[in-house]
Amino acid sequence: MSLQVGDVAPDFTANDQNGNRVRLSDYRGKKVVLYFYPKDDTPGCTAQACSLRDNYTALQQAGYEVIGVSVDGEKAHQKFISKYELPFTLISDTDQKVVEAYDVWKEKSMYGRTYMGTVRTTFVIDEGGVITEIIGKVDTKKHAEQILK
């Protein structure tokens, strides 16, 4: 059952990079860019995070809060944030509850090997918690532009 534009975004509670509990419902009244990515500090994920970082002021001026989600642990997130000076929250979804709730935990394959992993997807959520856009074909280098268009 895939999420669609117009659906209420599934609420979740998970730890951020500092071990603080974050709930999506805490962001009601704000627009949210909830982006799911495979792994900290890999080329595509770094390009995507840096696009959001470099355009963070414009995203905030447009009313967006940015939250990244991967199955990496808090320490990996802390290193990633520190290395690239990322100004937004990263959720540590080590138990895969959030990626499964958003149906982005899928079978993938690389070099003939099949494995489960996060499919890079961004959900744009309005002030009422409703999904207004789903970006499945993410341009990692121009991701902020895809959101702001």
UniProtKB/TrEMBL annotation:
Its EC number is 1.11.1.24. GO terms for molecular function: thioredoxin peroxidase activity. GO terms for cellular component: cytoplasm. InterPro entries: AhpC/TSA (IPR000866), Peroxiredoxin_AhpC-typ (IPR024706), Peroxiredoxin_BCP/PrxQ (IPR050924), Thioredoxin-like_sf (IPR036249), Thioredoxin_domain (IPR013766). It catalyses: a hydroperoxide + [thioredoxin]-dithiol = an alcohol + [thioredoxin]-disulfide + H2O. GO terms for biological process: cell redox homeostasis; cellular response to oxidative stress. Gene3D superfamilies: Glutaredoxin. PROSITE patterns: THIOREDOXIN_2. It comes from the Bacteria. The active site is at C45 (cysteine sulfenic acid (-soh) intermediate). This is thioredoxin-dependent peroxiredoxin. It comes from Arsenicibacter rosenii.
